[in-house]
Amino acid sequence: MKKNLLSVLILVLMIVNIALSAVMMTNVISTNKKTAELMDSIGAAMNLELYTPGAGPEVSLSDTVTHVMDQMTIPLAYSTNADGTVDSKQTYLVFDISLLMDKNHEDFAQYSGSISDYDSVIKDAVARVVSNYTEEECRASFTEDIRNEMLTAIQNQFQSTFIYGITLSNIKYGG
């Protein structure tokens, strides 16, 4: 009888152990889900900080087609002097621009053969963005902020992201 009583006691303790383990696992899983959600929100916040407007998905060089456009000369906005008066000297920005296009994008086939036909439209979009800035603002942020704004304007013009990047070279200021 003592052996049976001992066996029943062991069986009851095993069942209690399984029940408590199940309760503990339920608590751990719910806590793990909350931790995962917290990590996702932290990751999302970090991605927002790292996100650059107009930036598209990563495209390999083998899937990239480059369209080199003519040199652009754009009049910049007039600068404001230290005394608050507007500078009467017109400053120009001269640069070369190239478009980076994703040849696997669904809209690429529609525009790729005739992208040169849209050069004036693209130049107008770029000029509208750049002409709002003064020489000082361009010198401070032309390679990042203004470039992203130009890319967004071009993408909005085509209502597509097949143009996923632009390159600027030979940047010169003059007046």
Commentary on this structure:
With 175 residues, the chain is of the alpha+beta class. It folds into 2 domains: 1-51; 61-174, Tetrahydropterin Synthase, Chain A (2-Layer Sandwich), CATH 3.30.479. The protein is 51% helix and 18% strand. It contains 4 helices and 4 strands. It has helices at 2-50, 108-112, 119-130, 135-158; strands at 64-68, 72-75, 92-102, 163-174. Strands 1, 2, 3 and 4 form a 4-stranded antiparallel sheet that branches. Helix 3 runs antiparallel to helix 4 (135-158). The termini are far apart. The model has no long low-confidence stretch (mean pLDDT 84).
TL;DR of this structure?
The chain is α+β, with helices and mostly antiparallel strands.
Mean pLDDT: 84
Q: What is the class of the largest domain in the CATH system? A: Alpha Beta
User: What percentage of residues falls in helices of 4 or more residues?
Assistant: 40-55%
Number of structural domains? 2
Order of helices and strands: HEEEHHHE
Count of β-strands: 4
Rg for CA atoms: 30 Å
Low-confidence stretches: none
Shape verdict: elongated
Structural class: alpha+beta
Question: Strand count, sense and closure of the main sheet?
Answer: 4 strands, antiparallel
| Beta-strand proportion | 15-25%
Question: How far apart, in Å, are the first and last alpha carbons?
Answer: 107 Å
Do you know the CATH topology of the largest domain?
Answer: Tetrahydropterin Synthase, Chain A
Number of helices: 4
